[in-house]
Each structure stands twice: as structure tokens, then as C-alpha cells.
Amino acid sequence: MRIGAIEAGGTKFVLAVGTEQGEIVEKTTISTEHPDITMPKVIEFFEDKGISRIGVGSFGPIDCNEMSASYGTLQKTPKTDWVDYPLGGTLKEALDVPVFIDTDVNVAAMSETKWGNARDVDTCLYITVGTGIGAGAYFHGQTLTGLSHPEMGHIKVRRHPNDDYEGTCPYHGDCLEGLAAGPAIEKRWGKSAKELADNEQVWELEADYLAQALTNYIYILSPERIVIGGGVMKQQQLFPFIREKVLHMLNGYVTSPYVTEREIDQYIVPPGLTDEAGVKGALYLAMRD
Amino acid sequence: MRIGAIEAGGTKFVLAVGTEQGEIVEKTTISTEHPDITMPKVIEFFEDKGISRIGVGSFGPIDCNEMSASYGTLQKTPKTDWVDYPLGGTLKEALDVPVFIDTDVNVAAMSETKWGNARDVDTCLYITVGTGIGAGAYFHGQTLTGLSHPEMGHIKVRRHPNDDYEGTCPYHGDCLEGLAAGPAIEKRWGKSAKELADNEQVWELEADYLAQALTNYIYILSPERIVIGGGVMKQQQLFPFIREKVLHMLNGYVTSPYVTEREIDQYIVPPGLTDEAGVKGALYLAMRD
């Protein structure tokens, strides 16, 4: 069985055809423009591939409640050309196959649990720190959804006493995303993350905000593994800082061996599927139903 | 079928016998002392009741992973007499019936979803604000567990600029529980919550901390209903303050109609089962498996 998989991101769409074993047999990338430009290219790619179903891990917010009339429709996204765009409906109509949609981060949590760095556990939190901050959870075979999908990047963290940057979030100013996503780093320091790679002060501050968030996620969700990806996390020096600060903030309250000095390196980890977590997650999403 | 139900709390145990319809046919309450004193009374109560199974909603932390060798055993609880006490194992051995254990707040989330103020939705967060602050989540027929059960009361919130109270939590000082549970209110203001009922400043501060927590829970879990109970919430004037502040903090980012001025009164609500949420949850826990 050949399965279609789409990682629909704010800057690019990854289109792939894969197998039930998680093997990607063909893949291409196109840039995200107006839906009238992007979507015909997506449909053209899949048209002659003989796929029986298609999975999509999408940027959001998006309605991913299968029972809803607007399942697969984008909502109030900052990508204004895509607001209210029926991504799922358009694919289904054009390709005449079942379409399964969840958020990019929820499907990444799924694929990391199936094939990646959380494949030995049942509960995984996947966080991406890039242009924005988002997270998805895959717990005991279900992604976490309720009212809508989570928007974990918008929690409040305590400001570092030496940081007076006002934050970039148009809704909340200095929420986690407003203080710690890529654009906040660039605007606060006036340089790109890459140019700041050797400035320890930058990454210590960044790690403080991310560790606060992870500590809250641990108290609220209690995942057995935390996978962190995204452009900002290419700065690998962040990992030891974050781990150390999470241990310090938990202060021994959570007694699991996973969150001790001995095992924390295996608890807070980069993605195992590197840049394919999204597209493989979309593949797995379509396989499951 | 008669089912045993226990709400095992830090100050009292509620013991009940009920039916599959959620009816409690007999109930008694005993105080929580040393297990050597309390447990023989528990066993004596159930011995001649002809129950076929028993459900327990317990204080924690407790191992509630059914696959674990120490399922039903208390962990590093502040009630030192109960540390490492095999609550589930003791009941099973003495009464020779299957025993099902989860946290007090997880089972309260279950019973509110089955019979209480969340019976029209699939995803419910139950929070108790009393001697401590705890929360449980029941999402699509599962309670939320991973590494362990959540410990949502220990998240960090931003300090109110006019509050310099250091907090009561022995692990984190000024985490949510340290700033906003009953003992923190009493110690900060030098009076009991009841005596402070008319002091608006007290409840505005309390609502600020609780609203911050609820906002974080909404971003991370996205529940369709939030039920808040516990001793501190007997101060009903807290509800309008909390609702208003949550709307202000979300600032329109979550677009569901549930979190709008029009519907927030039905979104953040007191328990429907009042003081029976725990024991009825224990009953439901035993019925489900």
C-alpha cells in the first residue's frame, strides 16, 4: 500500500510517498505561498502516485477533530492567506482518498514514538523551537486534543531578572514563544542564532525559559520522554543547559529515575528522525485509522 | 453488583458501597491516622458487604500504573506514616477482590465527566484548591498518566507585583501551591480563608494565581471543561474573578466559543457532585475495567 504524507509548514510543504514500514520512497519540497499557488502543486504531485490514503501534519491552528464539520480547516493562523482554508477538504475532493489531519507537532510526537527517540515508551512530548514554539503529545496511542489542539508555546514563564526584552507575541507579548522563539532571540540580541552560537549568555537565558516550560509540562503531562527539535535546537549546546536547569527546578519532587542526573540525558533528547519527524508522522497518522 | 469505593484523603477516608448506576447505598467517614489504625477499620467496614471489586481515589503521590510491581503503593507523600505503604496490596489481600487505584483528582475528573458538571463533554480537567493544589484530567475515556500522575499544583506562576510572601512549598517555595493553597492564604494574611471572606484584595490575588494556572492548563491540555473544587473554592466569589482573568490572559488567542465572555460561566465551574466527586469517581473507576 502506498500512502501519501504531507508536512504542511508555514514556510514549506514536504510532500512524500511512503510505505507502511515507514519508508519514504519519494519526496519533494515546495515553498508555502498563497493556497491558489501551493495547492495545485500539491495535488499534481500526488495525482499519479496511486496512493490509497493521505496523512497531513499541518501548521495551525487547525481543526483536527474528526467529528467536526470543519475538520482539516485552518483557523486564525498568522499566515493570513490560509485563514479558513479547507486544507483537508481540498485534498479529499481532488485526490478522492481518505485524508487524516493533525498538527505538525502532534504527528511528530507520533513518529518519534513509533520510529524515533521515544520508541521505547508510551508517552512522548514533542516540542519544536523555531520561528514559533509548539508542542504535541502522544499518550498511550492518542494525540492530545480537547477543546482544540494544545498551544503549549503560549504559556507564561517567569522573566529572567536580567532580561527586559518585551517579547514578540502579538497576543501575549512575553509568553514563552514571545521570549524564546527564534525571532525573539534575533531581536533581543540583534543577530541571528547562528551568529550568536559562541555567546554563552544567550543560551543560558534561552535554556532558562525552555527549562521553565519543560518543568511545567512535566508537572502537567508527566511524559516519559521529551523530544525537542526545531531550528533553534540546532544549537546543541542548549541541551546540557536545559537538562541541568530542569533538574534544578524540579528539585527532587518527581521521583522517577528518568528525571535524575543519571538518566536525564536520555529523558530530554533531540529528535531521532531529525528532519523527517513531521513527514513520517503524517505517514503514520494515515496508517493508523 | 455491589462495588466498594474509597476516597483516601490526607485527613479522612470516605468508605462507601455503591451500585453501577452511581448510587451510594452506604457511606461512612473515618479519620486518616497511622495505617495500622486506619486500615483495619477500612477492612472491617467492607468485610461483610459482599462487594465484587473496589475502587480507590487516593492522595499521592502514588503508583497508579497497573503494569507496575508497586501499583497502588504510596510514594514520597508528606504524610510520612504512609510513605511506601501498599494501600492497594493490603486491600486486595484482606478483601480478596480486584482493586483499582488512581489519584483522588483523577477519579474526581472521571466522576464529573460521568455524572457531574462535565457530563456533556469528553475532556475534563478537575482541580482541587485546598490544603494543597492538585489536578486530574480525564480525556476521551482515559486518565492522564505517563511517567507518573501529574502534579499540576507545582507549576510556577508569575508573582503578583504586590505580593512578597515567600510561599509554603517545601520543594519549590513559591510554586502555585506554595502561593495559592489554603495554608499560603492563611499564613500570608494571618487569618483563615473564612475570616477573610469579605476582603476583596485577598480573592483578587488568589484569582490571579489560579487564573495563570488555568491559562497554562488550557494551552497545554485544551480541556473542554474545567471543574474546580476543594475547600478554598467554597469562597464562591473567586469564580467570577477567575473567569474574567482567564479571558484577559488568553486575550482571544483560543478561538473556541467555550472561552468567550458568553460561555465562560459554563466552562469554569464548581463540581456538580459537590463533596461526592471523589467517592463516586472511585466507584466509577472500579466499574470501568
UniProtKB/TrEMBL annotation, chains A, B:
Its EC number is 2.7.1.4. Belongs to the ROK (NagC/XylR) family. Its cofactor is Mg(2+). It comes from the Bacteria. It catalyses: D-fructose + ATP = D-fructose 6-phosphate + ADP + H(+). It comes from Gracilibacillus halophilus YIM-C55.5. It is an enzyme of class 2 (transferase). GO terms for molecular function: ATP binding; fructokinase activity; metal ion binding. Gene3D superfamilies: 3.30.420.40. Keywords: ATP-binding, Carbohydrate metabolism, Kinase, Magnesium, Metal-binding, Nucleotide-binding, Transferase, Zinc. This is fructokinase.
